[in-house]
Write a structure and sequence with these properties.
Number of domains: 2
Structural class: alpha/beta
CATH topology of the largest domain: Malonyl-Coenzyme A Acyl Carrier Protein, domain 2
CATH class of the largest domain: Alpha Beta
Helix content: 40-55%
Largest sheet: 4 strands, parallel
Strand content: 15-25%
Shape: globular
CATH architecture of the largest domain: 3-Layer(aba) Sandwich
Strand order of the largest sheet: 2-1-9-10
Length: about 300
Amino acid sequence: MGKTVFLFPGQGSQKVGMGADLLAARPEVFDRYLEAADAASGLPIRELCLEGPIEKLTSTDAAQPALFATSLAVLEVAREMGLRATYVAGHSLGEYTAAVASGALGVDDGMRLVARRGRLMADVQSERPGAMAAIVGLPAERVEELCSQASATGSVAPANLNTPVQIVCSGEESAVLELLRLAEEAGAERALRLQVGAAFHSELMKPVQAQMSQAMDDVSFSDPQTPMVGNASGVLKTTADEVREALTAQIASAVRWVDCVRTLTSEGADTFVELGSGRTLSGLVRQIDREVETFAADSPKKLDKVLQRASA
């Protein structure tokens, strides 16, 4: 392998049973992170990861600390096994995990911030519910045009630019419904409403953004030892202030995942290893650049396959 990127998944990658293979192989590592998530969130995160039900694990205030904790547990084992990254990146919530992996943010501070982020976003869902929709098969420029048209009925904008032709949009329900209608008329391959109760990465998240910015005032950030690419900009972050600003900006801004991946490949990254639950990000990376290698690992057994490939 040449230059390796560690990827960290965001909300939506959670599933009942996540971390079970890691628990079987390294119970002390799994328990340390998951018990910290229990304490920070006040929720039975460890139990929800292993036993569900999925409805409770999927709730924003549970899913975020659950994914954060399981990814960090896998990261610790990966490093013990000798895996190293040249860069780190995470999608949405995963950017907070990446900040810890970079060395810019401490584990304990990160756990507290993520638990707070999850609670605040859950509160927004009940106070000002929004909607999100996935538009597949239209380029980003066209989707942005359709959002501008739909904005006559309310606020809506791209929220996740996941691939050149897979865009998730977010905003007020009336505008999202109008966007779905316009996208179908415009010939989208798929235009579907997502089963979420809030408009993540939209201007509806500005109250959360303001409160998280205040929370970060009490946190000490360091210059990252491993550069991290920022969701909102798609640009590498190499100082403490840049990482802090990135974690604040992304809450009410679009996740520019295509830009993130292209920045990393332009820097010579050729291997992407997704650490944690699922394989969503490795799948997106393959759609953006088919020349790179991708792996998804949530257990020592899968990490060993990455190492075998590295030494082949």
